[in-house]
Amino acid sequence: MNTGVRRNTAGRGAAVATRSTALHAGAWWLWALGLATAASRTTNPLLLLLLVAVAGYVVAARRTDAPWAKSYGAFLKLGLVVLAIRLAFAVLLGSPIPGTYVLFRLPEVPLPDWARGVRLGGKVTAEGLLFALYDGMKLATLLVCVGAANALANPARLLKSLPGALYEAGVAVVVAMTFAPNLVTDVQRLRAARRLRGRDDRGVRALLQVGLPVLEGALERSVALAAAMDARGYGRSADVPAGIRRTTAALTLGGLLGVCAGTYALLSASGAGYGVPVLLLGLVSALAGLRLGGRRSIRSRYRPDRWGARAWLVSGSGVAVAGLMIWAASHDPLALAPPTIPLAAPTLPLWPALSILIGLLPAFVAPPPAPPRPTLVSPAQHVGPAPQVRPAPHVVPAPHVVPTRHVIPKPNSKEDRT
Question: Which pTM value belongs to this model?
């Protein structure tokens, strides 16, 4: 019998990831958020495509065979859908960019005066369509970066690394993040089962027949998760004085608001000056609140993940890409946001492109995933040449011999009887 063993050949320079050497899940999220911040600072399609290529290469080199790792393709398709919707809105509802090159005209629906500035139909210009394409590509790149973080970071290990004050909210977030990958895995498994039984796996009827087992599997996972959380004492908290609770709530809420305001200021073009101080102040306040809030949690951690040198390099590469792109956007805004009026082909700026390539560092620094166990390949899946079978030698059968029976004759006379 032929056996097939899959081997991991990516990243031979790094040690294979184990429980003790696996990269921290938070490092992957910081790296992905750095790429997303860089994508939010530009509308240059060449730079956006380069960001997508960097994220895709790192995912291809370092993702595992876990269910959540298969969600990257779904995020790519979602990005294409967002791009198509953005272009459709530009065609049907118009664009704020006036243009002179009319591509085609649609029947326009007259609207009342209170809907001034909005149109349905009318002329579609090349400048407006190009502006919508750039804007849609930026949104799609943001989704791809988030999908890379979902494919690389283990949700359970990320939940394990959260502070005690955010454990309850973290469980809800982790369950929400793992719902879509598990749903995709269940659908693929049930479609494969239908194909093996000779049934059709496409169409509305097949989708309806697959939907009920998928919902049943989701319900079973929910019940199992609830039982596991109850067995581990989920929701139990220690007694904390009222003053510490109020201080914790004020610091946490104020810090999170500061983080949101600082992040918005950094992502916008006008608030880059005060964004960094507000963001740092919010982070300090939020960390202090989380530190105090951790006293309410009485749960313990078994083998907590370590934030080692590899995690610093991976997260630092994402932060470096974001910082260099913010600096480039302030010094050369035309290179990162090419104008659509007049129509001109976008150019690839050298220094922003080199700064994006820093995001490839995790593909060489992070440890590759451990290879899966050997799996047996069935004879139906054997793709090589058929083995040559020698014919059995011709054996001449032996003649059939009937065994003889010894018959004793009956005596006829008295002398014979005696």
Answer: 0.66
